[in-house]
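Quick check before the chapter quiz. The format below is the same one you will see on the exam, so make sure you can read both the input and the output lines.
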Amino acid sequence: MFKQLTNLFKDELVKVKTVKRTAETRGRKSLSKKQKVLNLLSKGDNVAWSTIQNRF
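Here is the expected output.
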C-alpha cells in the first residue's frame, strides 16, 4: 500500500542533500602582540615603555 502511494507522489519526492560546513574565519585574523608593537613603532611616533606594557 505504501509503495503504491509513493508511486503516485513520486514526482513530488525530493532528496535533500546536507552540505558540510567548512571552518572559515570571517574577517581578518588577529595580529600578534609583537606585530602590534612593530606596527606602532613603524609609524615613527614616540612611544613610552609604560604605554607598550599597558596596551600590549
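If your answer matched, good. The helical segments are 2-8, 33-42, 49-55.
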